[in-house]
Amino acid sequence: MKTHAIRIHQTGGPEVLLWEEVSVAAPAAHEVLIRHAAVGLNYIDIYHRSGLYPAPLPFTPGLEGAGVVEAVGASVTEFKAGDRVAYANPPLGAYAEARVMPADRLVRIPDAITDVEAAAMMLQGMTAQYLLRRTYRVKPGDTILIHAAAGGVGLLVCQWARHLGATVIGTVGSEDKADLAKAHGCHYPILYKTEDFVAQVREITNGQGVPVVYDSVGKDTFLKSLDCLQPLGMMVSFGQSSGKVEPFDTGLLAAKGSLFLTRPSLMAYTAKRSDLVAGAEELFEVVGQGAVRIEVNQTYALKDAASAHRDLEGRKTTGSTVLLP
Predict the structure, then answer these.
(1) Do residues 171 and 141 lie in contact, with contact meaning Cβ atoms separated by under 8 Å?
(2) What's the pLDDT tens digit per position in 12-54?
(3) Do 215 and 236 touch, CB atoms closer than 8 A?
């Protein structure tokens, strides 16, 4: 079958994202052929495009999509043609009008969730789910710190953590983003460019610090984040939008109060199908309840993925962004 997809033949800037005609094979025994209705844009796509996270060339980027099943392989029993499904997993290849996917990596989209919402929520929403419910299980009365609070994952974490009964401190880069984070459940937005977020966290917590920091920024915030933690606190480094965290002496973790450090990935947390399905069901439930709103603040044509990448890297986006085939 002939279709179109974004292809990368060499890593580099947004200009390497090329719209090309491609062939899609019929699904193998355990695969499903999906016609995409919407494709999610995520910062990890930039890491793949730039070569920070290497992938064999040439390739189609993207880890998140939603659409309709067109055909199923001979061994697939859980899905049938016409089912609405979504995913946020390898293999790469979501930036395409149609593709095949392993059936065990798909989840069914509930009727209350639109295709665009599903494409916008799976990777970021499932990330928020494991961060808040599994990596450090947030409890009523906790005070947490989330960096990039106005970003896609950040806005979801703010809403969900507040729903769980936590007090949310979040760092943002502008007054507009502070207002956005506050409107989504962040009790204390901090303008990290002009304010000392360590001092602010200490003041908000009466000098105690927080039990957990969720940090997707990386190099610019990592060491200061350790100073925000209370003894035995957990540093969750789940991204690096400002660059890779530089090597450091792990003795710092002892000196700052026997801290825990983890570098989790969604792929590890959803490796078992039972965990994937349970996480998605919990996500769909809080969205269905209205406790967490999925806001798609930008859409681009899939063929214009380069423009979407420029805006994401330029910090011009908020909330979720979706590419439309």
Answers:
(1) no
(2) 999 999 999 999 999 999 999 999 999 999 888 999 999 999 9
(3) yes
Query: Residue 18's beta-bridge partner residues?
Result: 7
Domains of the chain with CATH codes:
2-122+273-324 (3.90.180.10), 140-263 (3.40.50.720)
Pairing of strands 210-215, 143-146: parallel
In the chain, the N- to C-terminal Cα span, in Å, equals 16
Given a contact cutoff of 8 angstroms between Cβ atoms, the answer to whether 104 and 132 are in contact is no
Give the Cβ contact number of residue 154 at 10 Å: 28
Give the residue among 318, 19, 27 at the shortest CA–CA distance from 153.
318
Q: Which one-letter amino acid corresponds to residue 299?
A: T
| Both tokens assigned to 316 | 């011009």
Helix (H) or strand (E) holding 321: strand 320-324
Q: How far apart are CA 292 and CA 285, in angstroms?
A: 9
**Residue 229 CA neighbour count, 13 Å, CB half:** 27
Pair of tokens at residue 140: 């009523």
136-192 pLDDT per residue, tens: 999 999 999 999 999 889 999 999 999 999 999 999 999 999 999 999 999 999 999
Task: Determine the Cα–Cα distance for residues 10 and 313; give it in Å rounded to an integer.
Answer: 19
Measured in whole angstroms, how far is the alpha carbon of residue 11 from the centre of its chain?
22
Q: For residue 217, give the DSSP letter.
A: S
Amino acid at 14: P
